[in-house]
Design brief:
Blueprint: E1 4-10, E2 15-18, E3 25-33, E4 43-50, H1 52-60, E5 66-79, E6 85-99, H2 125-130, H3 141-148
Parallel strand pairs: 4-6
Antiparallel strand pairs: 1-3, 1-5, 2-3, 3-4, 5-6
């Protein structure tokens, strides 16, 4: 099984590009991940994200922001200009979670464009719909009944 979960801080701003043939978004950045002991150096791991998630990473992440990456390790190789074979290792992300607050000074209340903006937090369907986002589904009755049976 090839799965990896990393939490770290971006070592650089994300770099967004698009594939030439079908214009799929690709975002690349380096995640600095601390080791268990403080005296050990951090590992700098190259991350690749595809599709809409790549566009969101470019929009909301920046150097220094904390993120959690869920994905898989992928290895590859290429021949450089000198004819030497170079081996590569990267994490291809299935999902990226934006951790911590942004530096935009808006306390997470705005979903505006621009780097460092933080996706909004809504407390009700009315707030979400007023901001132009789809509402949340109510908890089905079957779950509400089960909630009463929980012993804590």
């Amino acid at each position: 099984m090839n799965q990896v979960v990393l939490i770290g801080r971006l070592a650089n701003d994300p770099e967004l590009s698009y594939t030439p043939n079908n214009q799929t978004a690709v975002c690349r950045f380096t995640l600095a991940v601390n080791r268990m002991r403080r005296e050990d150096p951090a590992d700098f791991i190259r991350i690749t994200v595809w599709g809409k998630q790549a566009e969101n990473c470019d929009r909301y992440l920046s150097k220094g922001r904390q993120a959690a990456v869920h994905g898989r390790i992928q290895t590859g190789s290429y021949t450089n200009r000198d004819g030497a074979k170079v081996y590569t290792t990267e994490v291809v992300a299935n999902s990226v979670e934006f951790l911590g607050g942004g530096n935009s000074g808006n306390n997470g209340e705005s979903f505006g464009g621009g780097r460092n903006a933080v996706p909004p937090q809504f407390n009700s369907n009315d707030q979400a719909q007023a901001a132009g986002f789809p509402g949340f589904d109510e908890m089905p009755d079957s779950f509400q009944a089960a909630e009463d049976d929980i012993p804590f």
